[in-house]
Amino acid sequence: MRTITYRQALNEAFDEEIQRDPNVFLIGEEVAEYDGAYKVTQGLWKKHGDKRVVDSPISESGFIGMAVGASMLGLRPVCELMFWSFYTVAWDQIANNAGMVRYMSGGLINCPIVIRGPANGGTNVGATHSHTPENIMATIPGLKVVCPATARDAKGLMKTAIRDNDPVMFMENTMLYGLEGEVPDPADGDFTIPLGVADLKREGVDVSLIAHGRSVLIALEAAEILSAEHGIECDVLDLRSIRPLDEEAILETVAKTSRVVLVDENKPFCGVSAQIAALIQEKAFDDLDAPVQRVCSIDAPAIYSPPVEKEQLPTARRVIDKVLSII
Amino acid sequence: MPVLAESTTDFSKTEINAALTAEQKRHLLRDMIRIREFETGAFEQYQKKKMGGFLHLYIGQEAVAVGSVSLMGDNDHVITAYRDHGHALAVGMGMDECMAELFGKRTGCSKGKGGSMHFFAPDKNYWGGHGIVGGQTPLGLGLAFGLKYKGLKGCSMCFLGDGAVNQGAYHESLNLAGLWDLPVIYVIENNGYSMGTSQKRSSAFNTCLAERAAGYGIIWDVVRNGSDLYEVREVVGRAVERAHAESRPTVLEIATYRYEGHSVADAKHNKQTLQEGYRTKDEIEHYRKNFDPIGNFSEKLIQEGVTTEDEIKEIRKAAVAETRASVTFADQSAFPTAEDLLTDVYSEVDHNTLAGRTGRHFFND
Ligand SMILES: Cc1ncc(C[n+]2csc(CCOP(=O)(O)OP(=O)(O)O)c2C)c(N)n1
Ligand SMILES: [Mg+2]
User: Fold this and answer.
1) How far is the CA of A58 from the centre of ligand 1 (A)?
2) Is the residue at A50 inside a domain?
3) CA of A299 to nearest chain B CA: how many angstroms apart?
4) Which class for B302: exposed (0-12), middle (13-18), buried (19 or more C-beta within 10 A)?
């Protein structure tokens, strides 16, 4: 199969969806003429023009709110937040308008928008630019949340997100944009991945590592070392979408291994992993041979200092230590 | 829209500038040169991978910060966005603590926690250093509110970019400033671009961005040549006077230009592209040649007989040496440790007060 980067995979998804549906358009700061701050939309403005790829001033509340309104008329805006961190500026539009217009209208109005951009720490850009708000988005019933870890998932999930009739919060990662992975060739047909379906990225029998986004790669790295150095074989379950959540897949891996370490770049308090832990204790308590463990970011705003920021995020080392502590 | 242009007025003769002593003028020149050399040095260190993340250089805009800050009295305050090194040095922060912050060291002004975009020095009335575009504009208003509340005669100078003027928070701030007569001065540093977007692609306006203030009943003014430190001082000076005497806000727009990329991580500094796309090399050269705040002021001071070429060379040499020393200082300083992550989050915990000891504050293992 051909190999492309996570960035190219997303770019392909936009290109294909723009061509497929005249209601799809991209909007955001520097997405058009500048090709995107992280070059995710490279070439699309040149190819599709001003109407389909729109540069916005620095007015997140304005353009995202506008996109919500336009989506009520049936357009399918794909909004880029240069960093997901800037959701704070547009939060009312996301939470109260995108998240609730359908409910408040008794189901009369749809809001088929995608809000996307990188949501990650690890690049030394400081606390204001390093938020990972997938947990916060997922606390709003009405919003969907997706966090792909690989190029293949990024493409398949993005195409589905754009076609979804509900608002989808799509979290990418600047540290993944350049990573390559196998992605089906467009010549082989339309490729999509449904939301709400997790993916078992490695099979084992001893411990389940459950993660989303870049933490999946940390979990895989840890699983590799655990296997080579300790003979411990891990299931690595990639949630891919946070809401809807693939509860069945979670319970299945827990039933198989009876030991769980959750790897999560969120801060621990009400992080995604807190919800998963609650779910496991409610529904799989009897399957467990050890308490559910978590490896999260250290509970403080993101530090700038490059070597310390590395330590603040989940590391393979910390995952391994946790696994060894419950085996 | 104000683009940098030679003024016909000689601002060196206005009252506020005529009052400057020769020593004060040399000091202003020295401040600009120190900023230039510090940032040139920081950029070199960035390329040597001594720091990470963003580095937004102020090179080309020095007259704005130095001119404005030179008007500050004891109760005047400054706040800006992420392009904050110039303002920091202008208010008197040391190169050592600034360079160490860029290196992510414990001896940095924010202990290595904030980085390039987040320099602070409350003891020098300098309130940052803010990464979210427009986020500092209500804070600047708050400084003005605090001054008025306390009955102090002072002002808040809040700097923002030509892109930041399109954030809702700024417009809400303008309304409050006009409504409550708060002594805030919004200084729009119009360098023509927000990242790769030219001003005309980002803003709807009549004649200029500052003019929007009229809709809120706020007085506004423009500096046409932001590379002329004298003009900056004259126009900002009037706004400071208005704030002090009448407790009224002002919106200023200062035409200026940045020579480097938006951040040094950007296209201009990327070896593969070396082309920004959104502006031409000729354009950059035009401004470098004709509107260099340091060259411009040097020339004026030489003409006035206040300084000489040789003396300026000495000033530059000293600034280079100071920069080098700051690099050594930063290099030799220690990084914070993982334990340092959990300090400076809650005051009550740091001070081990009863409140800090009551209930769980952190949720690590
Ligand atoms: C809310 C928010 N949106 C977007 C950004 C990303 N961003 C950082 S600087 C910038 C351009 C700002 O331009 P301008 O206000 O003109 O200031 P300049 O960089 O020219 O000093 C953008 C879009 C941000 N930091 N915060
Ligand atoms: Mg600008």
Assistant:
1) 7
2) yes
3) 6
4) middle
